[in-house]
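DATA SHEET
Item: assembly model
Revision: 1
Owner: S.N.
Input lines:
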Amino acid sequence: MDDTTKKAVTQRLASAAGHLKGIERMVQENNYCIDVIQQIQAVQAALNKVSTLMLNSHLHTCVTTAIQGEDAGERERVLQEITNVFEVSSKL
Amino acid sequence: MDDTTKKAVTQRLASAAGHLKGIERMVQENNYCIDVIQQIQAVQAALNKVSTLMLNSHLHTCVTTAIQGEDAGERERVLQEITNVFEVSSKL
Amino acid sequence: MDDTTKKAVTQRLASAAGHLKGIERMVQENNYCIDVIQQIQAVQAALNKVSTLMLNSHLHTCVTTAIQGEDAGERERVLQEITNVFEVSSKL
Amino acid sequence: MDDTTKKAVTQRLASAAGHLKGIERMVQENNYCIDVIQQIQAVQAALNKVSTLMLNSHLHTCVTTAIQGEDAGERERVLQEITNVFEVSSKL
């Protein structure tokens, strides 16, 4: 992962973790359920963005290197991983 | 929210926040991108479960009370909130 | 389901089915894979809208009637169905 | 797209379109809303599978060819398309 992506991803993950701690307090203080659910959905949208940033970086680095390389097994492995991640994403 | 749900939701949110902090470390330590994305997807599945628990509790408490009540505006409000939460969920 | 929702839902389902037949032709004519995937995603967004319309109507009719009724088992059944539909939706 | 994938995708799209026509009849015959929504969700799961099949084929053909090629703009284009499709998928 390049440094710009690494920094952006780290900050977004820290922010999402902080957001979740805030949501935990909302639950303890008996906030309205719908408000809590909406905040959880906001965290999920933020995590989708993190995954997209990471996938984009991964495609430009490891995947490109593997596909330009000579190792057919390695090429197949990186492509299969992309398909798997996409399939799981469609089930979230 | 009943106490059982409140306790379960609080624990799951704390666990998800801890999981995200662990993922943040994975990124700082340059773990493989696909492994990081899969861990993020695991957190998202856990958050889906939290939202489902909260919605279930909300339906049995606030929504049931409102629909059995006399205030037509309040009935409409709680139903609209369910529809909105469902619609956002389908976009996550 | 009220007549307005029934008409809207029927039209949207017919439109989505027609869209899928068009996508089938795109595949047979060897259109670019990404274009095909994007069209499939458009159909899925349209189907999300249909489900939201139906859920909204269902909440205002069957669910309201059941919750205002005397049958505790029936109340529990309709609420559980909403939770289940929400849970499946979060996995799509 | 290779012939095996093309055949599988065509059959699945035709099946999904037929399924939607059946759901349209369910609505016209006033079937229970939750049953209709569950059938719509089944079609969406089937369409996720079609998209995954197509993406897998696309990665092994066009994407591999482009990344092994000399055209940097073309490489960037195919990678950006994957990221975009993933991002939209996470919003469905």
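QC remark: The two ends of chain B are 24 Å apart (CA to CA).
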